[in-house]
Write a structure and sequence with these properties.
alpha+beta; 292 residues; 9 helices; 5-stranded mixed sheet; Beta Polymerase, domain 2; two-stranded antiparallel sheet; globular
Length: 292
């Protein structure tokens, strides 16, 4: 779905009216269902950065390499919640991030692979940059083809794609730090975009981390008691059945702290002082004797 002025603007169907009255929508010519988005999201980066963002988006489109915007741009588009942003989060598949960096480097920009597990940057004049994100910072989920949909926004003079609601949730479920918690964003996307979320796809990508998904859905149910049916009942039944099956199982042999997937710094004492293994590896003891 495209945001912005133009012909063919129509109100959403009654069962889709989940946004403030100011919202208006233009449906792109496609056979696939698309998500509701709001016009004129009102991003507020520093004025001196706008020209750089506009130039960067133009070059990204010129490169022909698939990319998306996410973060505040997508949250605002899908929920109508307006908040200023001073950065630009460009998402791409892991195999494409070197191509993006090489494309900009050939045009005089400085590039920086900050962490090859998930993020790189493109700089201009050592003053302005945008992030190139190709996986979650904890290494659990990488950007893949399912993250690319039909939803677009008009931003800085360019029509660009944004992460679909399902992918936007995936990008936020593990952000649970002392200094940043994105659970409210997850709740708001579910509230406003439940019909557009690929719930089966969400479960498939969160299969190993189904407890995290269940925790978010329980938070949603607590926050919005009247909206509990937004997530499908089959999903709640599936997750609670897993929980019930797990309750009477013996504890795992390895004392691992998966809290590090939420916040490496907040759970460091668990690893350094309390004897828990980190999320990678088995810790100091590699024994496999039977447990009495």
């Amino acid at each position: 779905m495209e945001i912005g002025a133009g012909v063919g603007i129509e109100e959403p169907a009654p069962h889709r009216s989940r946004f403030p009255a100011r919202a208006a929508f233009r449906v792109a010519e496609t056979a696939d269902p698309m998500s509701d988005t709001v016009p004129d999201p009102g991003y507020s980066p520093p004025a001196e950065a706008v020209a750089f963002y506009a130039e960067s988006l133009g070059l990204l489109k010129e490169s022909g390499i698939p990319f998306l915007l996410s973060g505040t741009y997508a949250v605002t588009a899908y929920t109508g919640i307006r908040r200023p942003t001073k950065d630009l989060d460009v998402f791409c598949k892991p195999g494409d991030y070197p191509r993006i960096l090489a494309f900009f480097q050939a045009r005089g920009f400085r590039t920086d692979v900050e962490d090859e597990r998930w993020i790189a940057k493109v700089w201009k004049d050592d003053r302005y940059f945008f992030d190139v994100i190709f996986a979650m910072s904890n290494g659990t989920i990488a950007v893949n083809d399912s993250w690319f949909g039909d939803d677009t926004i008009e931003v800085y003079g360019h029509k660009v794609g944004i992460t679909p609601p399902t992918a936007l949730i995936l990008s936020k479920v593990f952000i649970q730090d002392r200094y940043r918690y994105d659970g409210a964003d997850v709740n708001h996307v579910i509230l406003k975009q439940a019909d557009a979320i690929d719930w089966k796809g969400l479960l498939d990508q969160m299969d190993l981390y189904w407890e995290v998904l269940l925790a978010h859905l329980l938070n949603f149910r607590f926050a919005y008691p009247t909206e509990r049916d937004k997530p499908p009942r089959w999903l709640m039944a599936e997750l609670t059945e897993r929980l019930q099956a797990q309750v009477n199982l013996p504890a795992p042999r390895i004392r691992v702290c998966r809290g590090r997937l939420f916040s490496p710094r907040d759970y460091i004492a668990d690893i350094t002082e309390w004897g828990f293994s980190d999320v990678v590896g088995k810790g100091l003891e590699e024994r496999h004797e039977p447990v009495d």
